[in-house]
């Protein structure tokens, strides 16, 4: 059974990557402007995510599956993402992504960015083109929280040793159940609810908030100690287990 010291779960669009994939697909259909407006409203929490996604996916009807390759070629990883995933792995953690986007893109992108496991929506296809419908259950905010908890349980990671990173209203449920909820390049409602606000440019800013590397023969999976907290400039008693909720924030919440 695979175990980990901690778990980091990210959103994909505008977090793991700089793009909004559904907007790139909508561009293939010549309907980017209307889909972009609906995406922004959903991320602000003004529209129910599942309802919004169904209407946006409907705008993709008729887009040929060959468009997936063109969209994948336009994906821009967020600066610092590979540094972050490498640091997580070096310190004994696991990286997950739960996205309201699509497996058709994420399945090709995630492995190259150091992601260990991921979940997203699937697009229904018939006769080589999108039907304008989602295939299966929609990955919404509740699903994001579910997968964070499920992966943590599978990996033997305590809830306090989980970190969730996102930018939109549908990321709030997983941020609420994580030990540390980080708003990255986020909408105002998300910034207000997050444990910390980071970014908006480089995911490498998360690295100082990760558990310190294990050292010494007495170190065990799931616990570690340090003489200073993950946030630079703050201290805690030697021997105190790392806990995101304990750490003194030094990053501006942006309020």
UniProtKB/TrEMBL annotation:
Sorted alphabetically, which SUPFAM superfamilies does this protein's record hold?
HAD-like
Q: Is Ribosomal protein tagged as a keyword?
A: no
Enzyme class, spelled out: hydrolase
One biological process term in Gene Ontology: L-serine biosynthetic process
Which GO molecular function entries does the Swiss-Prot or TrEMBL record give?
Answer: L-phosphoserine phosphatase activity; magnesium ion binding
Catalytically driven reaction(s) = O-phospho-D-serine + H2O = D-serine + phosphate; O-phospho-L-serine + H2O = L-serine + phosphate
Residues annotated as catalytic: 11, 13
Pfam families attached to this UniProt entry = HAD
Lineage, top-rank taxon, reads Bacteria
| Similarity-based family | Belongs to the HAD-like hydrolase superfamily. SerB family.
Q: What is this protein called?
A: phosphoserine phosphatase
């Amino acid at each position: 059974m695979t175990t980990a010291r901690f778990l980091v779960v990210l959103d994909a669009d505008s977090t793991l990557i700089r793009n909004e994939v559904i907007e790139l697909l909508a561009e293939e259909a010549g309907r980017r402007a209307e889909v972009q407006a609906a995406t922004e409203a959903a991320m602000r929490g003004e529209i129910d995510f599942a309802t919004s996604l169904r209407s946006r996916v409907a705008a993709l009807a008729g887009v040929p599956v060959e468009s997936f390759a063109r969209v994948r070629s336009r994906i821009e990883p967020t600066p610092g993402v590979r540094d972050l995933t490498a640091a997580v792995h070096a310190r004994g953690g696991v990286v997950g992504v739960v996205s309201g986007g699509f497996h058709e893109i994420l399945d090709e992108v995630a492995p190259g960015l150091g992601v260990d496991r991921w979940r997203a929506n699937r697009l229904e296809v018939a006769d080589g083109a999108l039907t304008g419908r989602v295939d299966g259950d929609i990955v919404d905010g509740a699903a994001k929280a579910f997968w964070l908890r499920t992966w943590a349980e599978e990996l033997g990671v305590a809830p306090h040793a989980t970190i969730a990173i996102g930018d939109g209203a549908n990321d709030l449920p997983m941020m609420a159940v994580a030990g540390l909820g980080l708003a990255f390049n986020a909408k105002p409602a998300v910034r207000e609810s997050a444990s910390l606000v980071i970014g908006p440019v480089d995911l490498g800013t998360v690295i100082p908030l990760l558990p310190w590397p294990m050292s010494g023969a007495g170190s065990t999976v799931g616990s570690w100690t340090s003489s200073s907290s993950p946030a630079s400039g703050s201290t805690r008693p030697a021997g105190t287990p790392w806990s995101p909720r304990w750490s003194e924030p030094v990053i501006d919440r942006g309020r």
